[in-house]
Write a structure and sequence with these properties.
This protein is elongated. Among the domains are: 4-64 and 677-714; 69-94 and 170-287, no CATH class; 324-444, no CATH class; 473-559, no CATH class. It is built from 16 helices and 26 strands. Helix content is 45%, strand content 20%. Strand 13 (373-376) and strand 14 (381-384) form a beta hairpin. Helix 3 (115-131) runs antiparallel to helix 14, helix 4 runs antiparallel to helix 5 (202-218) and helix 6 runs antiparallel to helix 15 (636-676). The protein has 717 residues and is of the alpha+beta class. Strands 14-13-12-11-17 form a five-stranded antiparallel sheet, with helices on one face. Strands 3-4-5-6 form a four-stranded antiparallel sheet. The protein starts with a helix and ends with a helix.
Length: 717
Amino acid sequence: MATLSDIINIATSGLQVAQTGLNVVSNNIANVNTAGYVTEVANQASVTGNGIGDGVTTTSITRATNSYLEQTNYAAQSTAAQASITASLLSQAQTLLGDPTPTGSSSGSTATNSFFNSLDTVFSSLTTVAANPSSSSELAAVNQVSTFLSNAQTVQSGLKTLTTQSDQQISTDVSTANQLLSQIASLNSTISQTSVAGQDPTSAQNQQASLINQLSTLVGVNVTTGSNGVVTIRGSDGTLLANGVSSATLSYSVTGGVGSISVTPAESKISTTAQISSGQLGGLLNVRNVQIPGVASQVAQLVNQATSQLNAVANSYSSVPAPTSLSGAKTGQSLDADLTGFTGQTTVGVVNSSGLLQNQATITFDSNGDGGGSVTDGTNTYSFTDGNSFLSSLNSALGSSANASFSDGALSISATGTNGVAIADSASSPTAKAGQTFSTFFGLNNLIQSNTVTNTNTGLTASSQSGFPAGQTISFALTSASGQPLNTITVTTPSGSTMADLLSALNSSSTGVGAYGAFSLSSTGQLSFTANSGSGVNLAVASDDTGNTATQTSLSTLFGLGAAQQISASNSYSVRSDIADNPSLLQTATATLSTGVNTTVLAPGDTSGADALSQAGDTSLSFSAAGGLSATTTTLSDYAAQVAGSIANTSSEASSAASTATSLATEAQSRLSGAEGVNLDSELVSLTTYQQAYNASARLIQASSDLFNTLLTMTGS
């Protein structure tokens, strides 16, 4: 049986609970427009004593959360941030390349603000030389080649800047993520202590939810909440980022041109690579590791192939008058290795300023390609078996009219006095090695020069000496199709000295890259890596301490291994210095060296070379897979169109994806706010309920007071 004191206790507890409820409602209404605020709920329970009701109490104040909608919102925010940064960076990359569409209103107008247009203009300017040879047209053509190469270097520089920009943003985001994780863990401690003490933890929980939402824009997260309100956060790949009062530490580094984020758990000093594929960090990593290198590789292939083709044509012709000296390109190998594999016949001619042949030396290589052969001056024949005897024989045949030398991996031939040097292959038996003529292989009459090895058609075969001593090392960074680091493998050059031995070491499944793909040597001596089918694995050179015995050229430089090396080569080109200074040295004519000494072998007005150069863009060439474009055989002009279309489509798709992701993120946030945010109608109902409960408790206290006074009066007290 309840006593008067019990009734007063019940009424008092009702007042307290109603007051707490009113405070919660007041707080909710005050935060109706506060972003990220979650409606608070006062949870009540009855109190009993000895089986008799003894009032009511507020057991806790909690947030009206919806874990499903919260996780959906985190995922949507992460996707939107990833798509947004991807679209932004790819848009900047496309801007660097320019708009490939024609400008102007007429159907015949052409684009003037596109990198790709500068290549078209190269060929059109050479067509003008062929149709109207003059000093001005030759100057315009040479300048246009320079413009194309300069534009390519500007594009590559811009793409490199985007990579640097991405690196800086990743470092900033990693620092921000570490701060957020530390704050989230600290709030975990506050929430736990507050809950244990029976106090209201919702303020700390709201702060924590806001921090988690910020974190989700940087990296995809999976959040679980324990019974004590403490959250555990894992990355989208399952990596533990925050647990209780401890948080992991993220760090960013670049190895072999590949950026990666490592995570170190609070309770461990062992770092592991985090497979981050969502959030702004996921977008940044993908763009800097995959998208930008892909565009750069496409541009490099276009430039390298255009340069190779223009040089191949240029080496088949000569200027009028011929240049006094032909300084070859670096081959990266010894002269012995360079000569091995050659067959056929070519002639080095010394020509005066009037085009009359003064002397000639005809080189005939043995048909077995052993690097031996003979040189004749028309009267005497000089045999050679290696590089040293080749130079001796060639110089003997040239006599005092010219001199040949080989230094730092480059062959040079210089005429004496004011005479010039021209080279022409035999029409019936042209020289050939790795699909190149003698002059082309050595780059003797290149239109475009470089200060490094750029001709990766080495002509080496499996049985050739590799030239790399045992014990040297090269490291490869292997990444997934999405740019995530997989492994770094260091290969040591073997004791075997042939290319077959080197290939075996590179492709070893235990100490080489055999688990991911294989290196192979093409018929022209190109060394390339092919990933296992369907794996999408990419290979980059992380470090290279190799150097061949002849020129100290590294393995990656000699064979152009990895996109970085190919991009570096494309950035090294310039118009040959003597041609840049004197455009009349443009290779516009055919040298007919077969007619004999004291005959005219170079004719002024001959534009056969200019015509051939103008058509260089129409030759079908082989392009390797790069940046989403499959390996293909096509012309330079068509490949340029493919590259332009590829970056335009990728950028457009990224922009559309960003718009869609942003809309979905807005919708997810709206639905979450609708479920967790303050509903004024519901709060009005709660306000009325608590007011009525408060009034009822107050009336019960008043009734108890009146009853107590009545009892006092009845007892005469």
